[in-house]
Write a sequence for this structure.
């Protein structure tokens, strides 16, 4: 029994190193990285400031620093890591591993990020959009496991999305597919940051929820939201969420409205893609999770698909670590 | 030279028979069928009335009659045909070849159509949704040739769609994907026949165009549309199209509005799918074809994709024969 147990432990250890990858999540202000094993578990997380102004070399230096910091925290990983995955927001070319025109990292226009990481660390590197990558991690290791086609969305300050078909990221013609946050459900509605009108991001993102609450509260009704925020101008999404949990009526009305908008949006997604599963992450998704069952039940009203209610809508496994897990999931 | 020419002719003839299929397009009132060769050319077209009430056997009899009529017109095809493709509207299970719940053929609920055709004719049979099938035919033989991923839409009395990825029909979880006509772009807008609000089918199908013209004309302005239609109540899509071609101002205003709605809709399609090519067919598409260039140029305003204008928007190769070609394209 002892010998068998030991062999099992060795095998597990071997497997863990066999599939060990580093995931690197590059944002406008920080680079987060960590070691990710074959089960998607993340260890040795680090975080360094991103240098997004100045030269591309300075920005790249921050990425190198983050990866080196993971190796420093887990020296045994240096020989074991078989791949480095990277994810970033904004337009990029996943096939060539090139950052095209990142809105928050202007110094990286056309920067061959994956090739540079491969050159420095001597292991294969892959790059993709952060929401695409997070979606793949959910399918491989998270709440979308066991499904071939998954629509993933992260609802927060913005609304990002990833489409996974046959357990692979669907990129479209030039890598621009899966911009699920910019599905227009109300073309006569408010303008989105992207320039379009009535995108779900303009209607149901964190800032949109705060704006909707402010509009309702401007009518002067008493609400816990204003108590929490101090002033009307100071109302943020979190105040609406907290007031909702405390039973505030206006907060409930606002989130009822957001639930309807999300249902309309998911109805369109289901009618176009009919995924096996819908996985949602991000702060707004957590806030809206008490509505998931209701959204599911109401979906057939906003879909031509009579089986729309059968499609599971589930919270993502990964929260703040979605980028690290997603980046690591890119390595085959 | 003569011998070589003869050999070439034999080879061509052999190829043509090698890939010869029958395509069967089943509607609520008629069954159309024809012989389709390896280039997608259709010959020996026939049309028989569909028997959509009564027993499933009566409806199936109409399908058998249509196929037999093709064989009667082209007796050499009986030994040469390698497959029979079938397409029909409404919910069906393409994997099992079963009609689930066709709105226009109630007697066929749960009818194993493909298996029955295989049993009677002794060749493999395939079944799919008519718009899916028509989209595949456009990719294999029509205006979408050379593209891996294509969004196909047929704009007419209704708006049907097909999504082709990697030169295959994308079905989704249960065959319910690609309901592109029921993408909601105006959730506060008019109700669609499907029960949802503001679907593109409710806004830009043939009947919607006629309704929009009637609304504009109700203000009492003189228009060629009313001259053509006789009375306001009698206005149909064709009258709007004819008046537009004759330079009528109200007709142009109506089609300007429809062009905007189609642009918003295609913006969402591009942001989700970023296809290599958009192929459109049907009477409304023909009527709107003078607007294709404008829609293409305006697409970046209604898409987050900076390259949206590069995606070709082209008229389908197949018109009224889209169903026959589509059905035949299902046979591998």
């Amino acid at each position: 029994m002892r010998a068998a147990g030991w062999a099992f432990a060795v095998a597990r250890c071997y497997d863990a190193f066999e599939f060990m990858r580093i995931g690197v999540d590059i944002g406008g202000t920080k680079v987060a990285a960590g070691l990710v094993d074959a089960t998607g578990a993340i260890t040795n997380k680090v975080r360094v400031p991103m240098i997004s102004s100045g030269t591309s070399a300075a920005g790249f230096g921050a990425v190198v620093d983050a990866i080196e910091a993971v190796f420093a925290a887990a020296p045994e990983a240096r020989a074991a890591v078989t791949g480095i995955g990277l994810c970033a927001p904004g337009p990029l070319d996943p096939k060539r591993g090139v950052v095209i025109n990142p809105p928050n990292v202007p110094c990286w226009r056309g920067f061959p990020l994956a090739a540079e990481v491969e050159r420095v660390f001597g292991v294969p590197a892959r790059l993709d959009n952060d929401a695409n990558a997070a979606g793949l991690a959910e399918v491989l290791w998270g709440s979308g496991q066991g499904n071939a086609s998954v629509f993933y969305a992260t609802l927060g300050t913005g609304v990002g999305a990833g489409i996974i078909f046959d357990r692979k990221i669907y990129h479209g013609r030039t890598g621009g597919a899966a911009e699920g946050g910019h599905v227009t459900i109300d073309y006569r509605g408010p303008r989105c940051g992207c320039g379009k009108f009535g995108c779900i991001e303009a209607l149901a993102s964190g800032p949109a929820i705060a704006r909707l609450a402010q509009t309702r509260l401007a009518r002067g009704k008493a609400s816990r939201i204003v108590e929490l925020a101090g002033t009307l101008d100071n109302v943020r999404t979190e105040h609406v969420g907290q007031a909702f949990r405390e039973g505030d009526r206006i907060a409930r009305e606002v989130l009822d409205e957001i639930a309807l908008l999300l249902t309309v949006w998911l109805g369109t997604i289901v009618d176009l893609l009919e995924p096996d599963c819908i996985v949602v992450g991000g702060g707004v998704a957590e806030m809206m999770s008490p509505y998931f069952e209701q959204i599911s039940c109401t979906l057939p009203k906003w879909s031509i698909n009579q089986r729309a209610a059968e499609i599971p809508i589930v919270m993502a496994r990964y929260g703040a670590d979605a980028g690290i897990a997603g980046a690591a999931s890119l390595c085959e």
